[in-house]
Design a protein that fits this description.
Helix content: over 70%
Distance between the termini: 45 Å
Radius of gyration: 13 Å
Number of strands: 0
């Protein structure tokens, strides 16, 4: 039953507005961190949201970076954490001031 809800949250995190996507990510993180590890599917969605142009001007930006930080702290894959940090820095450099 919970797996169905988790699948729905993953669908929402791909298709809805940015605010809803971030809320879905927060809920997914809360559900999934109780397991031993976060699935690659979760990190794929986080990576996808980094490229949303709306993130730069949205008030939900802080919430997104909070969940990103928490997820990276929980991740055991050092290469993936490095890749995320590199991508965040690239997005920051190319963002308009």
């Amino acid at each position: 039953m919970i797996e169905e809800h988790i699948d729905q949250l993953f669908k929402m995190s791909h298709q809805c507005t940015l605010r809803i996507r971030i809320q879905a990510l927060i809920l997914l993180f809360q559900f999934l961190k109780t397991n031993s590890t976060l699935p690659d599917r979760f990190f794929r969605v986080l990576y996808e949201v980094l490229f949303v142009e709306e993130l730069k001007i949205n008030s939900s930006c802080q919430q997104f970076f909070d969940v990103l930080y928490s997820a990276l702290k929980e991740d055991f894959s050092i290469p993936r954490v490095k890749a995320f940090i590199k991508r965040v820095l690239q997005v920051a450099v190319h963002a308009e001031a």
